[in-house]
């Protein structure tokens, strides 16, 4: 049989066991829905609901900030009641909240519904991280890389569907996107019933209730992870503005940036990510990501000083290098985020990590548009140096966290008075 079409090769692509395939499919379905709605959400609220852009921004900001509060408690519930249970509940709430958006006619209603959605999203995100750990036990790095590959592919397909609705530009078309996203949450929840209902793991009897927030190495890594997360809005927000306002590159370059970024991540995430398995690999990978961003940012800056086609070439080359950095950064984040957390508290730790990432994303637009755009070329150079400095701390934080983790495992090995909990 031809090697490229062997059953083993197909299993490698789609998942190594039934649980992995179910979680990959559930994640893919959910992200298609996200791609359908997130791409045009602002247009829906401003053009269809007819709310002022300022009110829409305020409502989503309030919802996002309140939603941050649910990550750690939601993760703790996932640790104690089982990640599948909490994830299904969160997805159900999001399906209902998303469906309710078709009835929104005021700022207050949008704020309330969006807040409910963000609270569920934060709790569900922490539970999802704990569920990923329980499912991908054989080759965790390979599984997480494949999972992210399908996530990216799902977003791309959803975005294509959103483009069709924008072309139609009718209330019905936008309503279909909203309900399509709601259906994706519901279908994702139903698919999770195909997974085992993993038991909660016993915790050491002397452990503090909120162990994650007292774990100094992990809190430090959370801050670094949130800071490195600025690389995402660099592609989605900063670079399009830079191309359109500060370079002579053709306008189609803006669309090419998004396409190349998604394509590189879909094609290379598994190949690169599967090699970053241990926390030590993660620390080194974090440093590599910083160095790749250090290379890509000056290339983006130089595009403002080049003629039309040279500018386009620089932007395309820069986004390719930046996309490689994104793969290394995300893979390193998986290895460190999961590897430095104790197994019995994965949900709580993933909730903390999600809090740090979301905080960084909330600050990113103000930082990137004022500092980088304000300083121009110097701003890009400063941004690249910032990413390199953050990445350089990766190996040190890994060593610190590994030492702390070893002590935690020694405590966990002691007899505990808390039995395992199983929840049907």
What's the topology here?
Elements (H helix, E strand, L loop, with lengths): L6 H8 L3 H21 L2 H8 L4 H15 L3 H11 L1 H18 L6 H29 L4 H29 L2 H22 L23 H13 L2 H16 L5 H22 L5 H24 L5 H32 L6 H30 L1 H16 L1 H19 L12
Helix pairs in contact: 2-8, 2-9, 4-7, 5-6, 5-7, 5-15, 6-7, 6-9, 7-15, 8-9, 8-12, 10-14, 10-15, 10-17, 11-12, 11-14, 11-15, 12-14, 13-14, 13-16, 13-17, 15-16
Care to describe what's here?
- By secondary structure, this protein is mainly alpha-helical.
- Helix content is 79%, strand content 0%.
- It is built from 17 helices and no strands.
- It has helices at residues 7-14, 18-38, 41-48, 53-67, 71-81, 83-100, 107-135, 140-168, 171-192, 216-228, 231-246, 252-273, 279-302, 308-339, 346-375, 377-392, 394-412.
- Helix 2 runs parallel beside helix 8 (140-168), helix 5 (71-81) packs across helix 7 (107-135) and helix 5 (71-81) runs antiparallel to helix 15 (346-375).
- The N and C termini lie far apart (44 Å).
- Mean pLDDT is 85; it is low at 1-12 and 416-424.
Q: Tags for this entry?
A:
424 residues; mainly alpha; 79% helix; disordered N terminus; disordered C terminus
């Amino acid at each position: 049989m031809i090697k490229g079409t062997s059953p083993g090769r197909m299993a490698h692509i789609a998942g190594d066991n039934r649980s992995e395939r179910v979680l990959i499919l559930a994640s893919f379905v959910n992200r298609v829905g996200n791609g359908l709605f997130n791409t045009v959400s602002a247009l829906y609220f401003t053009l269809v609901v007819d709310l002022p852009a300022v009110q829409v921004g305020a409502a989503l900001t309030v919802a996002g900030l309140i939603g941050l509060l649910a990550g750690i408690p939601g993760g703790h519930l996932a640790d104690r009641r089982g990640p599948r249970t909490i994830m299904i509940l969160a997805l159900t709430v999001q399906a209902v909240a998303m469906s309710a958006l078709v009835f929104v006619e005021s700022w207050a209603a949008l704020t309330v519904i969006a807040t409910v959605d963000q609270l569920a999203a934060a709790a569900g995100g922490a539970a999802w991280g704990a569920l990923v750990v329980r499912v991908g036990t054989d080759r965790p790095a390979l599984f997480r890389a494949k999972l992210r590959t399908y996530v990216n592919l799902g977003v791309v397909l959803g975005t294509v569907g959103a483009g069709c609705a924008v072309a139609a530009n009718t209330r019905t078309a936008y309503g279909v996107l909203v309900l399509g996203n709601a259906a994706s949450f519901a279908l994702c929840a139903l698919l999770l019933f195909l997974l085992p209902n993993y038991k909660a793991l016993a915790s050491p009897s002397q452990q503090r209730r909120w162990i994650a927030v007292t774990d100094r190495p992990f809190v430090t890594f959370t801050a670094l992870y949130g800071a490195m997360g600025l690389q995402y809005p660099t592609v989605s927000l900063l670079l399009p503005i830079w191309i359109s306002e500060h370079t002579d590159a053709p306008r189609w370059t803006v669309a090419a940036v998004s396409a190349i970024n998604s394509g590189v991540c879909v094609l290379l995430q598994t190949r690169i990510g599967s090699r970053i398995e241990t926390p030590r690999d993660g620390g080194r990978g974090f440093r590599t990501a910083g160095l790749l961003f250090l290379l890509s940012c000056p290339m983006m800056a130089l595009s403002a000083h080049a003629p039309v086609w040279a500018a386009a070439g620089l932007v395309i080359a820069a986004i390719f290098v930046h996309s490689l950095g994104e793969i290394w950064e995300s893979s390193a984040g998986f290895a460190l985020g999961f590897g430095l957390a104790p197994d019995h508290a994965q949900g709580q730790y993933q909730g903390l990590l999600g809090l740090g990432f979301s905080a960084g994303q909330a600050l990113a637009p103000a930082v990137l548009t004022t500092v980088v755009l304000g300083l121009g070329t110097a701003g890009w150079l400063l941004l690249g140096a910032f990413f390199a400095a953050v990445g350089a701390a990766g190996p040190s934080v890994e060593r610190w966290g590994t030492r702390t983790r070893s002590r935690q495992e020694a405590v966990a090995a002691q007899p505990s008075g808390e039995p395992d909990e199983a929840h049907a």
